[in-house]
Amino acid sequence: MTVDVLVIGGGNAALCAALMAREAGASVLLLEAAPREWRGGNSAHTRNLRCMHDAPQDVLTDAYPEEEFWQDLLKVTGGQTDEALARLTIRASSHCRDWMRGHGVHFQPSLSGTLHLSRTNAFFMGGGKALVNAYYRSAEKLGVQVRYSAPVDRLELQDGRFVAAFVGSERIAAKACVLAAGGFESNREWLREAWGQNARGEWPSDNFAIRGTRFNQGVLLRQLLQAGADTIGDPTQAHMVAIDARAPLYDGGICTRIDCVSLGVVVNREGRRFYDEGEDFWPKRYAIWGRLVAQQPGQVAYSVIDAKAAGRFMPPVFPGTRADTLPELAQKLGLDVPAFMQTLNGYNAACRVGRFDHTLLDDCHTEQLLPAKTHWARSIDKAPFYGYALKPGVTFTYLGLKTDETAAVSFGGVPSANLFVAGEMMAGNVLGKGYTAGVGMSIGTAFGRIAGVQAAQAAMKSGVHHAAA
Known about the structure:
There is one protein chain. The chain is of the alpha+beta class. It folds into two domains: 2-183 and 218-235 and 398-461, FAD/NAD(P)-binding domain, CATH 3.50.50; 239-393, Flavocytochrome C3, Chain A, domain 1 (Alpha-Beta Complex). 27% of the residues lie in helices and 21% in strands. It is built from twelve helices and 21 strands. The strands form five sheets. Strands 1, 2, 6, 7, 8, 9, 20 and 21 form an eight-stranded mixed beta sheet that branches. Strands 10, 12, 13, 14, 15 and 18 form a six-stranded mixed beta sheet that branches. The protein has a three-stranded antiparallel beta sheet with strand order 3-5-4.
């Protein structure tokens, strides 16, 4: 069979591409590797979109101008970002919501407990699952063909051009193709290869959970790397969050995240702190904590809070370990009690409490303590005490395909005429490291829409138009 535009993937970026290509007049086939009930990839687990806006807009308060968005991104990535593509994403985030609404997506104000996001992020009513379902309904109404349980095994390429894709032995030709099949985070062997062994002969990645879909195996990403496509990103960099150590191996999603880190202290299995828990607002820093935990012995850590933190963070799905004293908590968590108490006593003694305010970068900090806690530092001294065992949870990997403002895949610096990329497969262009809440959806929406339009135009230029089914 032959269509104008083939979209490989089934999440937000793929759906945006399919919808835009269809609206541009192309016939479109979308191939989703997952069965229908698991469709949507990681997008089904999302909650919001980070949006630039110069004045209050419906569900968004105040203003969030381009320069502030850019500075937020610059800070979390440490400068490892392509400014032109980042600014393209930021600007696109300011005018996509009317289009999204036109395809059935509804928005709501930020949820209780989603600290600091009412100004910067528009929440999807019903979450990412509702967004994905709305897009699929719209795609089907418009005549986009959708096939589930259709993983693409390989691509047929010729001189940097897309020719066809194979699902098993079936060959599917198209005039243009959009790759939006996610990263390689579900591929345990590739994670092992990327992270290697530590000095003790252990494989750190064996202790990672995959927060989202099990279907992002990176098959096409691997093939394109081997075919000489230009790449970007470090295979060990990822959106990696500290999650509850009791989380399932796949699809734990948002409810397994532990959000009380900034309200207490985090210790490793030796009972020692290893990073500033109060460095910045949680939406800007939550996605560094998975990598921090991954670098600790055994890839495990423990978030410890007292009764003063109760009600100040979004509760996880599982209750924490509770104790009436700190030594009892250490014992219940399986930590060395003297080492743990030395850490907690040292921390409590170093706290300089001013005016505590979790909505601001307040003046509660530690003195003469390494690592410091620079904000929200209060003694952990009010029973009951709670501890949460943490392990790394990978959302998506940042190794991807280098692209430009047209979303084209490039080979040796030459953009392909008919092969485009969107979503996690190219997010590393904007996210060299780090993360800030909602920006993955901003990238996927911006580049999905660009890729869809570009693919439709490339198909039309080929001179042969295939009518939609």
